[in-house]
Design a protein that fits this description.
The complex is a heterodimer of chains A (434) and B (260). Chain A is of the alpha/beta class. Chain A has helices at residues 3-12, 86-98, 115-132, 149-158, 171-177, 183-206, 231-244, 273-288, 293-296, 310-317, 331-334, 342-352, 359-365, 369-372, 390-406, 423-430, and strands at 45-46, 52-53, 55-59, 104-108, 138-142, 161-163, 218-224, 249-254, 324-325, 376-378, 381-382. The chains are: A alpha/beta (434), B alpha/beta (260).
Amino acid sequence: MDILEKLTVLTDAAKYDVACTSSGVDREGAPGSIGNAMKAGICHSFSADGRCIALLKVLMSNACAYDCSYCVNRKSNDVRRATFEPRELAELMIQFYRRNYIEGLFLSSAVVRNPDYTCEQMVEVLSLIRNEYRFRGYIHVKAIPGADDRLLKALGLLADRMSVNLELPSHESLQLLAPDKSRESILVPMGRIKTGIHENRTDLVKHRNTPRFVPAGQSTQMIVGATPETDYQIINLTAALYKKYELKRVFYSAYMPVLSGRNLPALDTKPQLLREHRLYQADWLLRFYQFDAAELLDEKNPNFNPLIDPKCNWALNHYDQFPVEVNKAPYEVLLRIPGVGVKSAQKIVRARRMGSLDFVDLKKLGVVLKRAQYFITCRGKPAMGILNHPDAVLRGLLSEQGARLATPVMEQFSLFDDSRSTKEDLVKCLTGQI
Amino acid sequence: MPYRTDIAYLYDGSFEGLLCCVYESYYQKELPAMIFHYETVQETLFPVKEIVTDVVAAEKVERSIATAISKEALRLCRVCYFSHIENKEMAILQFLRMGYRVGPRVTSMLAHDVVRTVTKAAQNVQGESHFYREFLRFSEYNGALVAIIEPKNFVLPIIAPHYCDRFPSEQFLIYDKTHKWALVYQEGKRSLIPLDDLELPEVEAEEAQYRALWKRFYNTIAIEGRINPKRRMGNMPKRYWAQLTEFQETGIEDGSGAGK
């Protein structure tokens, strides 16, 4: 099989992994080497599905020894198999990097022969890239559950980020769809990585030249929509992962029916993209807006409102805390205004020191008032013609959406442009299928 | 004494030259109606005064901005100077005049029109520079890497440190087709040179192979069930596509169409 074919097979098998971020580590270049890394990360392209391409995301091999029912690479599935030679993959990655196609490598693999052998192959690729090509750019590597600790450690010293996929949000779902994997087999390596990072931190204090272990932290992903968990369960799980395992990111992936199976959703199931989008919005509220999982949802309201974003939803349920006076409210309170992001809040704090702000000033600062206008006052006054009753606010927020709904929109959802939905999804939302 | 305003300045187009305009404006008590350089010069009824670039005066102004206003103000002016907005010179002059009046807090007066013009222009330059850290592609010709960009702002000086740090052992050239300048990096040294035209030789076989591989990767990584052209366009504006390898012919037959 030539390299073009191999690349096709092993990219196709890797594409369902969501994470493609190249963030979390700052590393300058050095003479005689190649590459550097920027803390914020750099996307180099966007594929036709609108997702960022930052890393060469491939599997080392798709010749899997396991037979997980939900996985395309399962042993019993009739697909083309391919395996990269370590040097072949290293050379390809470096050549892509030189041309500024990518920011680095995202290496994962099916289990070839056994976890240890697979892990050894991956270590070989990474050490070629790091030691022979002297690459200082970004590497994200998948930990192979079940591999020896020594190998896991070797991987972590060569990579910037490691991840172990949680796959499904609960133990029961895991038993149903991936009986070969147990919750423990996933959480154990996750815990080891966390300990590794901690130990490394103490070592770094003692010896400045200690090689760094997973400096960009670890991440995970889970599939939503294949099993019956509620948003409440998922968000609580997410918050626990951030707290207990100190993860840098949790990714969600709307279930894509690519296989049929006894326990799997039917092949014509539509991916729950709106739900995925709402979960990401809530995830941001946890990480950057100082929200608690318990504030966003509870057992009585276990799912996000598909019609409005989680922050709006929270604000409407806590309308007694509004309106907020823009000129006086502390930064943390500004952050909780729907439609006001981190940047806007920072700008407001900075600009109001120079003189009090009115609505025109806010617009000039670049604060988007579409949603915020219902929740704020400037110098004690609300925006013109704004009603201050939660029901009226909801009507106001929805009427714009209603106007959009009237025109048929054929599109999916973007992380950054919220609350657009297809008619179909809305009908689904309203009938409670989502 | 009121400032004289019925006058236009002509300078050499350099940042130092612009600082000399600021110097002149202060010491001659003039507020020019317009400032242009040799390439943007227009017919005007005002008398045109040619400002000769004097490095000593420029340094004096630079120091005074840093001390009397703030280092951030100076940085803002430098970035804004690379902007493509019309009358950026006047915008910078007005910003500095205000800065000298109110002091360091000028950079926080974000809602003020004079400040906003400069911060917005600077933001635009920084934003586009970041796009050119993302959406820039090199091709290898005879061992050297060459990229072509078509930026609106003059981003080369801003992106130069990034690429020089990233590829210390390479030889590369980034050609700005809009402004007709090139960033050249060779043997650890970088230089900016004016370059009217860039003619590239035929693509070599190995280069064509990597282009084909990249295109194949690009087309394979997208998930069919999530195709979303609008989101792609939002993240990667179409004006960058022309120079991106993934949207170009590779010279090698590839079964999967571009950007399916």
